[in-house]
Amino acid sequence: MAAQPGANIETLVTRLREQGYRFHQNNDDQTSTEPYTTPDPEAEEHLHWLEKRLGPLPMVLASWIRIVGDVWLVGTHPQIR
User: Fold this and answer.
1) For residue 16, what pLDDT is reported?
2) Residues 25, 33 contacting (CB under 8 angstroms)
């Protein structure tokens, strides 16, 4: 269920970079950041933390955390000022 979105995100990030898009944090310095990271061993621990505080999470959200990872597409495109 979440494997295809992960592949789509990788494609999107690649195409944006090819156009000169700069991924950065949402701060005044626009600190560079990686837009996509796959889940690390702490993802399952994070999921359990969320479920403990919020109760059962929708399957799509749990799958995203376990399979896709973290996505942050904030940035600046060179053609948009």
Assistant:
1) 96
2) yes
CA–CA distances in Å: residue 77 to residues 6, 11, 15, 28, 81: 22, 16, 12, 16, 8
Q: Rounded to two decimals, what is the model's pTM?
A: 0.78
Integer Cα distance of 14 and 12 in angstroms: 5
In the block, tokens 């479920």 appear at 51
The CA distances from residue 33 to 24, 48, 51, 56, 71, in Å, are: 5, 26, 28, 31, 11
Q: What is the pLDDT of residues 46-77, one digit of tens each?
A: 999 999 999 999 998 999 999 999 999 999 99
